Amino acid sequence: MSRAVILGRPVNGQFASEPSAWRKALVVAALPVALFAAVVVQLTVVNRLPLPGGTAPDLVLLLVTAVAVSTGPMTGLLTGFAGGLALDVAPPATHYAGEYALIFCLAGYFAARIAAASAATTGERNPWVELGAMAAATAAGEAGKAGLGLLLSDPDVTHPAIRHVLPGAIAWDLLLTPIAFFLVAWVAGLARPVAERAPRPEFVGAQRLAAAFRLASAGAAPNLKLAGTGAKFTDDRPARRVPKLRLADARSRSLVRTDLAGSGAARPAGAVGRTAKLNFAHSASALRTAAGPALRGRTPRLNFLHSGTALRSASGVGHLGGTPKLNFAGKSAALTPPRTQKSPGKGWIRAGDHPGIAPHRGQRGPGKGWIRAGDHPGIAPSRGQRGPGKGWIRSRGRSAGVGGKAFGTGAGSGLVVAGRRPPKSGWLRTDAHRPPAPANRARPGKGWLRKSKRPRANWYSSGPSTRWVRRSRSKDRWRIRRRSLSGALLPGVRDLRPSGDRR
Amino acid sequence: MLDARRTRPVLIALLVVAVALITIDFRDGGTSGAHSVGGRMFGPVEHVAGDVTGWFRGGGSSAEVSALQKQNTALQLELGQAKVSAQEAAELGSLLKLSGSDHYKVVAASVIAAGGDYSDTVTISAGSSDGVAANETVLNGDGLVGTVVATTPTTATVQLATDAGATVGIRMAGDGQIGALTGTANDFSGTAPLKLTLFNADATLKPGQELVTFGSVGGRPYVPGIPIGRITKVTTQPGSLTPTALVTPFADFTGLGVLGVVVSK
Q1: Number of Cβ atoms within 10 Å of the Cβ of B34
Q2: What secondary structure does DSSP assign to B206-248, as a single string?
Q3: Which one of B117, B120, B189 would you mutate to disrupt binding with A, by most A Cβ within 10 Å of its Cβ?
Q4: ipTM higher than the 0.95 cut
Q5: Which residue has the higher pLDDT, A492 or A24?
Q6: What is the mean pLDDT of residues A392-411?
């Protein structure tokens, strides 16, 4: 037993993920001992060293933040409070008791919260994030010590003293941060389960599905399969480049957001770049993939549609790839061709109902009529794109672009073009009587759907009926009041106001 | 998050406790019971640790003994000088009704710990059990070091003269002008000298002039006649009411080893 423990991995039961109880107890007991030792060493050794800069690192603060990021918020704040209080009351200290306890408690708590939030987001502990959180918390702790001393008008903590001490102290702390972090992380790792390398991700819902995909494909996309189809969707030729898969749930805002199929607006896919992204939405479960860059990627021949999932695919069609064969199985499909793509032949895609089309920069306009959208194509060409031929897109439905001014003359087409030549006249025909875009629509003038005058806020104006209105002395004023009341109580007037924040 | 739900009340409770501690200590002027409790807890440990580090610093016990003897002679000499200075100050002392100026005893102690970045304080290895009490003068072979601000049974906390909160009444060695000497904070590194302000507006200051302590009533917190330092730079501004100067202390505050506490008999 002892030999196995000395070697650091228990032999009995190689699948035993839990370390032995006494080792855990030893690590837990080591924390207060280490804290006490840090306080004593700080006071008796480090503070007396004639270090360059005239300042010294704070070992206790380093230990607190390192323990915090290696364990958790509770341990972090308790360790911080204990260590700070020890520094407050140990003999040479002349500042007020509780100052360092306050600062170190906050530093330990927030360092651990940052590390825990990162671990919860990505599903695994990232030592670099933990190191960064620890460094930030340490620097903030040093600044907090100075700030609190200044706040309490400590005679020792003056502005010149802070200017002299604080940069040096932070520099010393940052210098020792990696050492403290790896020492503490190593010790804390002894008490953690052995199978630390691949923790079981505790995702919820679709995130768990995404994790299963990632696990099954070992991070590579070409072998991605959906269960139940039984078909092999991989290309036989070896892929040159493995596109990255990124996961995003509904809350994540880090990835490029794409809209649902029915919204009728497609965003330019320029930000998507070369990496394909899989979005596993929570409820809608719309799986979109944009496969491969134009020059290197392979074109998936088939796309797949699971029950209830709308799949969007935009395949890279470059010099190596041929014409993609896209099967848009559903009614909803958005096409996102990548950059420097040659336009395919005329009429190579005929989407059913809702194709959202976003051509890229540098892309030549395709031939006339290569896409004829049925009802709601959302079209947003990027900047720098040459105008396509006349009539290559005929949109009839509601098309909206992103941001900016709408081009066009009087019809107010929804196309958004930035820094682009105006197209030839008539290359886009939209409905003439389509209402203009909401962003550019002028607010209605006075009296459009609003009363010209606000109802007076009298005691009776909020009454439930006109019975509350008493007869006034003047008949004229009575009539005015009655009219204003009827206007105020008209049902639905509030909802018709174009105020925007209607709920 | 379950963890956050559990930790947040604890965090808030500990923050409240910390603020309460600060408030109590602020009310008591930094001498609340927390400090004495901490001193009793950490004092013996620092004692041991200070001995260990002192052994490393001195390179062994024999070197430590020789250093102690050397310090002892220096202290004897210093005390003699102090007595001479006290003789010189006798006229002033009689005016100020200084009492018992020749009943001093020196308790030797070594530095075992030092304060943080902002405070120039050290812990010495002699405490109230050795007769050390608060507000007693601390010196070494070179000159004035500071004053005792707090004691535990085994340790005492010394506020160095370089601390920003320390003010020493001084007398110029030559012409007997009196003034005040304050620390500039955070010169534990020994780079920043002390600031001198004379009370007499007509007095002139020259670099090289030496300073001794003026002395306090009953020798607390400073006994008279202890040499402090030498003027290195006169910083009197034209038009200012008082002459000012920067003073470099005789004592080396970066390498404090053995100190003597002047205890009254």
Answers
A1: 19
A2: -TT-EEEE---GGG-S--TT-EEEEEEEE-PPTT-SS-EEEEE
A3: B117
A4: no
A5: A24
A6: 42
